[in-house]
Amino acid sequence: MTLGMKKIFALIAACVPAVALAAGGNVHLEEHRTDLHDTASLQRGAQAFVNYCMGCHSLEHARYNRVAKDLDIPEELMMDNLVFADKKFGELMTIGMDKADSKRWFGAAPPDLTLVARVRRPDWVYTYLLSFYEDSTRPWGVNNVVFKDVGMPNVLGHLQGRQVKGTAPVAVGFDTLTGQEILEEHDDVLYLAEEGTLNEEEFEKLVFDLVNFLTYMAEPMALERQSLGWKVLLYLTILLVLVYLLNKEFWRDIK
Ligand code: HEC
Fold first, then answer.
1. In angstroms, rounded to a whole number, what is the distance separating the alpha carbons of residues 205 and 145?
2. How much is the pLDDT for 17?
3. Is 198 left (phi over 0), alpha (psi -120 to 50) or beta?
């Protein structure tokens, strides 16, 4: 094996654990049907992020004005609702929390989330936010299915309600004769012991919007790239027609 090839293999080997980690082990992940064209969802996600997450997490590679432009949010609306009082429109979305303090409070400093949807994948972040459950042995009284012994409190708990892990009936199929779901008792399932201020559908929508926003955040160019893709295709189609006509013109006198 040449040295060059060895280096390539070493590089591939180094990437494998990262991929396995990003996939979240063997826990089933909920699918996040990311839709970067749903501007209203991205706007709601941005608002929710500022309200519920930015107390602890920064988006330090993003600027408010770029987000406002990408998500069609007018400057005034953005300044009134999404930009912290001491910040300017063109500033980075950093926060004031001290890393050493937060490490002391939570056991781990809340990481910057600009790229989290790319590092962990949207499905993982979506499942993570839906899978906090009560665990009285933990400092914040909660644990998480995809992030064991997580240091983050369940900040959306009041909206979702009290989610617990235990034995509960799970729909395993559908009886076409009676028109009813077939239920089976399973261990270690998550279920709501008490409703929060949102119902299940509303809560999932909120988390969907949040992850949609974080997915845009991890790759803001994706929005531009998609519209650029269509322009390139259009250009190629026009070129094809012109080349075809030119080809016909060249051969006319020869035949
Ligand atoms: C009270 C502070 C706090 C708030 C508010 C908060 N988090 Fe966290 N978050 C943390 C801490 C601390 C960690 C690190 C947990 C650990 O490493 O054990 C974390 C970790 C995470 C992670 C995992 C990152 C990784 O790749 O390891 C994600 C994703 C996340 N938070 C998303 C959110 C979202 C979305 C919101 C808003 C709905 C939010 N957080 C609100 C404190 C917070």
1. 20
2. 45
3. beta
